[in-house]
Each structure stands twice: as structure tokens, then as C-alpha cells.
Amino acid sequence: MEKGNTEMKLLEEFFPEFTQKLDEIDQLCSEKRMIDKRTYQFICFALSIKARSKPCVLKHFKGALEAEATLPAVVQEIKSKFINNNCIQEY
Predict the structure, then answer these.
(1) Tens digit of pLDDT for each residue in 8-32?
(2) What b/e string do you get for 27-37 counting C-beta neighbours within 10 Å, with b at 16 or more?
(3) Cα–Cα distance, 19 to 82 (Å, whole number)
């Protein structure tokens, strides 16, 4: 099992109210979103990377692809938000 999935399982087991609230936030954002789904997923993806949350990175990476983002677009998003802002170094 992936480490990210294990972390979410632990949260669900020991803090079910927290994971429930995360689900409620996702639902609310989905219903009230003023931006398109792809942009929303890109924002969540970027925040997940910044927070170093593997489960969230995986969730929103998949979400971006499901929202019809292409892999090159996701890579460009990472580069434009992080490498160009000196948040990470390009090797």
C-alpha cells in the first residue's frame, strides 16, 4: 500500500470528523466553484505540493487529468508556479 493511502487511512481511523470535514469542503467547493474544474484542480494541486501532502498531490493530479488537463499542461503548471518563482530548483 502506498504511504499516501496509509496516511489517509490513519486520518480516517483516528480523526473521522476531520476527514468528513475535508469531504464537505470538497463538496462545497464543487457546488459553489466560480472557476472551471481544471483551474480548481490546478490550484489544489499546487497547494498540495506546497503543503507536501502526498495524498492530496495524488488526488488533485488525478483530478486535473480527469478535468481534461494534459500531462504537459500539469508539468507546465508546476514549472510556472514553482520553478519560475524560485520555490524549487530545476535540475
Answers:
(1) 677 788 888 888 888 888 888 778 7
(2) eeeeeeeeeee
(3) 28
